[in-house]
Please model this.
Amino acid sequence: MSGTAQIGVTGLAVMGRNLARNFARNGFTVAVHNRTASKTRALVDEFGDEGTFVAAESAADFVAALERPRRLVIMVKAGEPTDAVIEEFAPLLEEGDVIIDGGNAHFADTRRRERELRERGIHFVGVGISGGEEGALHGPSIMPGGSAESYASLGPLLERIAAKAPDGAPCVAHIGPDGAGHFVKMVHNGIEYADMQLIAEAYHLLRSVAGYSPAKIAETFRSWNTGRLDSYLIEITAEVLAHTDEATGKPFVDIVTDQAEQK
Model:
């Protein structure tokens, strides 16, 4: 299977695993790798019927499984872990190969990495990926930066796996050079979290001032979702507020323990 994979994904937590499955479901041969080899084997064992995977337990085997120019997606935590993975794989790559960072890196770090790898003849693409774990599997909105040459190699794959607009256009575009993709993702996240804050404050006012029950607030959010406020965040807020805990019969928002780890 040497040199047969069109794309590779290293880092197989929820986002990386689902992104690899998305590529495979869309007809690409996908090399998969994780620092803990059991995660690699588990992905292939559980989802091997979704497409063609090439499992690699070492960095060298992973790189060898990729066709030229190699396209290697990194899906690990931002910061030092990303730098560590780059330094592990970059010496194994050749001129013209592409490293893609699909994490939420700070755009200044992406600019630095792109500059350093460009000097070694390797393309570096910082890619913003929106849609969470469901989007990664079924079709995310994708914001790639990097050189035009790297997008010519990578773009057709991203366009295949991306979400599609109502007119069928893929929700992906070459944003611009070096850190542009991660810069736009940062702005995107800022808007999203501002929306979430407004939703939380609206819930607080309806619950604490107006005295509405969670079920009544859910109805209010559903009505908002039929008008100008129609959006995924309004939709899922209504669903959460309407959910009742089976064990207690109480609104789920009243009994859930606020200890969820952010993803």
In short: The first strand starts at residue 7 and ends at 10.
